[in-house]
Amino acid sequence: MQRGLAASRERATALILSGVVIVNGQPAQKAGMPVAEDAEIALKEAHEELQRSNAELEQFAYVASHDLQEPLRMVSSYTQLLMRRYGERLDGDAREFTAYIIDGAGRMKQLIEDLLAYSRVGTKGKEFKPVPVESALRRAIVNLRAAIEESGAAVTYESLPVAQADDTQLAQLFQNLIGNALKFRSASVPRIHVSCVQKPAEYEIVVADNGIGIEAQYFERIFMVFQRLHNKGEYPGTGIGLAICKKVIERHGGRIWVESSPGEGSAFHFTLPKEGAA
Predict the structure, then answer these.
(1) Which of 71, 76, 143, 269 could serve as a FRET partner for 105 with CA atoms 20 to 30 Å apart?
(2) How far apart are CA 239 and CA 104, in angstroms?
């Protein structure tokens, strides 16, 4: 919302500077109104259009979370019931096929939930407030405790700043990045380290691991929705996690990128603007 309004204001300013304001499809001068007044009208119309767009996105989110998931629950539930009641009468092929149905329904459910999370980054976010970045990181570590213990991973971090942020989305960001480090680990015991570099106008935070690494040709692709570099049989997931990270950071006015080499681990960098920075 804030980013959209900023873009609308920039557009209105540009129209004023050019001496032309378009209202309802025609130049303001033809309407016989002052340019400044029509710029306000144009800005208001842009604001209302953005609100309508967000309302449509909210409706999509509702459909995705309820209407689309209900048929999947039916498919999965009745297939499992079929297996429990008549599994002994089915031959090996039939049991294998029903297992495919249950697995496919489960993956589709996860896909819908991830799409819902992606769509809600910009519409369900909380107001920014001073957030200790360490507290968001610690929340992510608690959420990932089972996976960390199962892999024997060590997650360490240095002193982290207080930044203007949405604490829930910041925790989600860390959870996605650390979760990926655990998932794409090498044969070595996972080592994940979080550090921060203070710059004049922003904090640059780095989440580094000793995992399998990423080839340079995929550095941009991995942040796109549904982009997977590995077969789902090797590494489960929907390919939306890093796209959510990118959307979260863009909402915060920052950037995110990766530095990596195959077999040498990865370092995901993201920035958070300092309060009051231009």
Answers:
(1) 143
(2) 16
